Amino acid sequence: QIEKIAERAIDWCAKHHGRSKFYDGLPMVEISHERTKCLRAEFDTDNNMITVYVRRNRSVKQIVQSVIHEYKHYLQSPSWLDRYMKLEYCLNFTNPYEIDAEKFAQTNWKRCMGDMYR
After folding, report:
1. Distance CA 21, CA 106 (A)
2. d(CA 65, CA 106)
3. DSSP string, the chain
4. Cα 90 to chain centroid, rounded
5. pLDDT tens-digit profile of 49-65?
6. Rounded distance, CA 88 to CA 72, Å?
7. From the CB of residue 113, how many other CB atoms can be counted at a distance below 10 Å?
């Protein structure tokens, strides 16, 4: 169920915000039951993969927000994303790519969920 929700959110993002110029296809989805301290999801630039940590996402809303946030990272330059991630830890919102991705998620999650449930 979680994987289907994540994939539908990715499809919605692709339809409304386009595909990345840095990757050949849409990101794949991986569901993890691993416990993480602060990550609800993450984008792996090497494998074009969004991992959703189910223990940190307690609702459909959080899953959709997390996937949209990571989709924004998929659209961003992977070399700059990796540089910024090496300098930052967890939820440090001084990282401009994290700020951009969080704004993107907050701006789009309601519309995405509305369209998904129509």
Report:
1. 23
2. 7
3. -HHHHHHHHHHHHHHHH---SSSSSPPEEEEE----SS-SEEEETTTTEEEEEGGG--SHHHHHHHHHHHHHHHHS-HHHHHHHHHH--TT-TTSHHHHHHHHHHHHHHHHHHHHHT-
4. 14
5. 999 999 899 899 999 99
6. 17
7. 20
90 or 94, higher pLDDT: 94
In the chain, % of residues over pLDDT 70: 93
**Chain centroid, CA 23 distance in Å:** 15
In the predicted model, what is the mean pLDDT of residues 71-83?
Answer: 88
Checking if the pLDDT of 11 tops 60, the result is yes
Instruction: Report the predicted TM-score, pTM, of the whole model to 2 decimal places.
Output: 0.90
Q: Which amino acid is at 96?
A: P
Annotate 47-81 with b (16+ C-beta within 10 A) or e (fewer). ebebbbbbebbeeeebbbbbbbbbbbbbbbebeeb
